[in-house]
Amino acid sequence: MRLCREEGRTMHNHNMLEVNNLSKNFAGTGRETEFAAVDGISFTLDAGECLGLIGESGCGKSVSCMAMARLLPEPPARIAAGKVMLQKRDGAVVDVLKLSGRELRKIRGGEIAYIFQEPSVSLNPVFRVGEQIAEAVSLHRPDVADPWAEAVELLRRVGIPEPRDRVSRYPHELSGGMQQRVMIAMAIASRPSVLVADEPTTALDVTIQAQILDLLLELRRQMGMSIILVTHNLGIVSETADHVAVMYAGRIAEYAPVRELIDSPAHPYTKALLSAVPVLGKEKGRLSTIPGSVPSPANFPAGCRFSGRCALYAEASAAEQERCRNIVPEFRKVGASHYCACHLLRRGED
Ligand code: SF4
Questions:
Q1: Which of 8, 174, 201, 326 could form a disulfide with 303 if both were Cys (CB 3.0 to 4.6 A apart)?
Q2: Is residue 295 helix, strand or coil?
Q3: φ, ψ for residue 115 (rounded to 5)?
Q4: Are 236 and 211 in contact (CB under 8 A)?
Q5: What is the DSSP code (8-state) at residue 171?
Q6: End-to-end Cα distance, the chain
Q7: Residue from 344, 345, 349 whose mutation best tests the ligand 1 pocket (most atoms within 8 A of CB)
Q8: Is 244 exposed, middle or buried (0-12, 13-18, 19+ CB in 10 A)?
Q9: How far apart are CA 40 and CA 276, in angstroms?
Q10: How would you class 231 by CB atoms within 10 Å of its CB: exposed for 0-12, middle for 13-18, buried for 19 or more?
Q11: What SS3 class is residue 44?
Q12: Taking a C-beta distance cutoff of 8 angstroms, is the pair 297, 250 a contact?
């Protein structure tokens, strides 16, 4: 797994997904024309890998994941640039952004499956969970003779006790943890190559969170699928992911193997995020915070989008600040598979 930077490069056999320079614009209101909510996102995902996508709320994690399978309504969204190369189960490689109609529907919820934060909202309250899973089976695996029996098997596989009974229940008859397991059963019904889990445990109790994450990792091992785990929780990422991409305001600020990112963060934003995590047993004191908030996409600065909140920027010379404000920082390699987009990188490391 590494950052994908070379435009037009052929896809490696072990890569399940290559996202290259993905940019998604949204139509503005009033005098604005368009703004880039997702701007030049690039990464690769190997078969069986888990990539953690982290950042504060509103930094573009979910929008980027939805843009990959064109799940956002167009208009107001518009693909401005990029490629999303997916290796399908049959070995064929397709650019998801170039697909339309039936081909695109087969990819969405099929080869690329999604689990969202709030299962009670994602499940349809008027259908039994078995019907909803069986529908996903029929849609993506028409060769399955008995979708209802497959729904029972999928419930068993995601660890729901007494699946023959639970398959006939309505969502409101199940706990939050069980509802999320049902969502996972629906997601794996298509045997996806890539599973996007968007804050899958945020709405759950801590003990249930751990069970759901363990389940996702076990299913990854059994099925060989890759996972993109979207979260704002660095603890979850450190336990689960192989690599991490830190997102800020629609761009990737830093990308690294998970241990390296936590032990040796390079970007001022990553450092600020890590220092805001409470540590058990640490002497009491004021928890550090990042001043301000993620700017609105309509008001992104021309250069580095973190410049309004960056501690390193605040200490920089006038010339350096001008560069930060006006020129987009490019990725620089700071380790074997570690990249960072910051003009003052060397200075920050000293
Ligand atoms: Fe801070 Fe400048 Fe680096 Fe952006 S480019 S993170 S403003 S030092």
A1: 326
A2: coil
A3: -125, 135
A4: no
A5: G
A6: 28
A7: 344
A8: buried
A9: 27
A10: buried
A11: strand
A12: yes
Q: What would the pLDDT profile of 24-68 be if each residue is shown by its tens digit?
A: 787 766 555 777 788 888 999 998 999 999 988 888 888 888 888
Q: Which residue has the tokens 């953690």?
A: 52
Q: What is d(CA 244, CA 21) in angstroms, rounded to the nearest whole number?
A: 17
Separation of 346 CA from ligand 1 center, angstroms?
11
Q: Which of 210, 241, 191 is nearest to 54 (CA)?
A: 241
CB 344 near ligand 1, within 6 Å:
yes
Q: How far is CA 333 from CA 124, 135, 139, in A?
A: 46, 46, 43
Ligand 1 atom 2: residue of nearest CA: 324
* DSSP secondary structure string for all residues of 317-339: -HHHHHHHHHSPPPEEEEETTEE
Q: Render pLDDT for 206-228 as a digit per residue (tens, 0 to 9).
A: 788 888 888 899 889 888 899 99
Q: State the DSSP string of 63-93.
A: HHHHHHTT-S-TTTEEEEEEEEEEE-TTS-E
Q: Which residues of 151-169 are buried (b: 16+ CB within 10 A; e: fewer)?
A: bbbbbbbbbbeebeebbeb
Taking the centre of ligand 1 as the mean of its atom positions, its distance from the CA of residue 266, in whole angstroms, is: 11
